[in-house]
Amino acid sequence: MFNVIRIPALKDNYIWLLRKGAAAAVVDPGDAAPVLDVLAREGLTLSAILITHHHQDHQGGVGGLLEHTPSVEVFGPERESITGVTAPLRGGERIRLASLGLDARVIAVPGHTLGHLAYSVGQRLFCGDTLFGGGCGRLFEGTPAAMAESLAKLAAFPDDTLIHCAHEYTEANLRFALAVEPGNRALRRRADEVAVTRAKAMPTVPSTLALEKATNPFLRCEEPEVVAAARAHGAGADDPVAVFAAIRAWKDSF
Ligand code: ZN
Ligand code: FE
């Protein structure tokens, strides 16, 4: 087993630190300073960095971390430009985090960016800007069809999978979700709970895949209420990709 430490960074990012004994790995260090603080405080040695995609808020701290710990292995998407990658990946690989004694599965999830990767470690999924609490990433580079397929890959994990996304966006995402699906009672309950959590400045992630499947409209593109809402916002057909494309575009201007 291993533990996970949530490191708040930048405006609303989370850097996830995996620790086992004195060994640590981090996912998407957008900033080095808060990671170095945790490593020092907990007496940990960084041995691996996992990058989901090339945006600065996910890789901006790699250079600073490598200055302190030059022998760190850096995993990241082969088709994107990322500082210091030593192990380029395309998805489908199984990688070994040797000093933590852990294996991770690498999943290609294009959509937000073309090379975007997710990492599955035990029961936990580190999915960057692909699946968020109550939402999903914007389509900066990929097509709606690609993103819908990527989300379907993540949705196929077991229901108790913990969803470690890279941003605290849940509250705003759920406001949009309620506009899509005002009749979803599980969604109302989650939105109420999240409002209380955020009022106390507490984190809303990780969530579980079961909760996302019950409340995240981007995983619910076959639900009649979601289909109807998409139809009312430009979807030309009822198929899941058309529905996904319409609600993703609607969210962009919500
Ligand atoms: Zn991003
Ligand atoms: Fe981001």
* Strand-residue proportion: 25-35%
Please summarize the sheet with the most strands.
Answer: 6 strands, mixed
- CATH homolog superfamily: Ribonuclease Z/Hydroxyacylglutathione hydrolase-like
The radius of gyration over CA amounts to: 18 Å
**CATH overall fold name:** Metallo-beta-lactamase, Chain A
The beta-strand count equals: 14
Structural class: alpha/beta
Strand adjacency order, main sheet: 1-2-3-4-5-6
Order of helices and strands: EEEHEHHEEEEEEEEHEHHEHHH
Total count of helical runs of at least 4 residues: 9
Helical fraction = 25-40%
Distance between the termini: 41 Å
User: From the coordinates shown, what is the CATH architecture?
Assistant: 4-Layer Sandwich
Bound small-molecule species: zinc ion, fe (iii) ion
Would you give an account of this structure?
- The protein is α/β, with parallel strands linked by helices and 254 residues long.
- It has a single domain (3-252), classed as Ribonuclease Z/Hydroxyacylglutathione hydrolase-like (Metallo-beta-lactamase, Chain A).
- It is built from nine helices and 14 strands.
- The chain has helices spanning 33-42, 56-59, 62-68, 144-155, 170-180, 185-199, 209-215, 224-231, 240-252, and strands at 3-9, 13-20, 23-27, 45-50, 73-77, 87-89, 94-97, 102-108, 117-121, 124-128, 131-132, 135-136, 162-165, 207-208.
- The strands form three sheets. Strands 1-2-3-4-5-6 form a six-stranded mixed sheet, with helices on one face. A six-stranded mixed sheet has the order 7-8-9-10-13-14. Strands 11-12 form a two-stranded antiparallel sheet.
- A hairpin with a 2-residue loop joins strand 11 and strand 12 (135-136).
- Fe (iii) ion is lined by residues 55, 57-58, 129, 166-167.
